[in-house]
Amino acid sequence: MLLLEEHVYAGMRNNMRLDKFLAEAAVGTRKIVRDYVEEGKVTVNHREIMEPASEIDEKSDVVRYLGKEIIYTGKIYYMFHKPRGCITARKDAINPTVLDYFDVNKTNGLFPVGRLDKDTEGLLLLTNDGEFSHKLMHPDKHVEKTYFFWAFGSLDFDAREYLKMGISIGDDEVLAKATKVEVTDEGNYQELKSKMESDKVKDIRINPYRQSVVSGYLTISEGRKHQVKRMLKAVGCYVVYLKRVSIAGLMLDDSLKEGQYRELTEEEIRSLYI
Ligand code: URA
Q1: Within 10 Å of residue 239's Cβ, how many Cβ atoms?
Q2: Is 203 a catalytic residue?
């Protein structure tokens, strides 16, 4: 009778393998956490469990690693408005990182999906779901990312065509292509200065007067280092401001100020799980 009750109860539990639970809670990789379990470092409801494949109820069982309770957060997905000046990494000895903007209780296992340069702001996704990140980042998926830029220089018809046909941005690399190029403003610095300032373009280190400036959107479906800056440089434009505004059709939420984040909705997660 007791066995039957246990069996019925087990059917109602949120079952999950212990090693999967520990890995998803960022205690270590799947392999490392298996060793921890076999070494007797993990308890479930105060009992030492030595079998990594044991099933636990991730919502109600109390799991401890070396005596410290491990809280299950499940899969988490955030949209973050990355400010300029922080590094897209989990840790950095000198600069603030994107994780410094998150509540410490929410950073368990959280990592950025791809990266933005230190001086680039805009849409950055963070998650603890490795599969989600892998899918979005895989070059074969050709996920489109759109950037808004201000640059010194001009983008005439030919330059825009070059960007779309493919342009060399390094000695031995294949050509880098834009899937879309749109110019929103073009003129000289004097004329566009106040518009640039309202878009937060500041700290210009070259003498800007009498120079041409251009703003617009560039969409790419690759992810090479400094790609947008290098592509625009290849057509004679020097980027002074760069902001990622969308990834795979998901727009940066206007209500998020720099440094703010929110959870993705289920619909947004589904649309990105390609
Ligand atoms: N391209 C760049 O040049 N920088 C970024 O941060 C992202 C894309």
Answers
A1: 22
A2: no
pLDDT tens column, 59-93: 889 999 999 998 777 888 999 999 999 999 988 99
Which residue segment(s) compose the domain that 196 sits in? Answer: 144-247
CA nearest ligand 1 atom 2, residue? 226
> Does residue 268 have its Cβ closer than 6 Å to ligand 1?
no
Confirm if 166 and 177 have CB atoms less than 8 A apart.
Answer: yes
49 alpha carbon to ligand 1 midpoint, in Å? Answer: 47
CA pair distance 69, 232, nearest whole angstrom = 50
Instruction: Give the predicted TM-score (pTM) of the model.
Output: 0.81
Query: Residue 26 is part of a domain; what is its CATH number?
Result: 3.10.290.10
Beta pairing partners, 1: none
> Which distant-in-sequence residues (6+ apart) come within 8 Å of 146 by Cβ?
180, 217, 218, 219, 244, 245, 246
From the CA of 115, give the closest atom in ligand 1: 6
Asked if 161 and 99 sit in the same domain, the reply is no
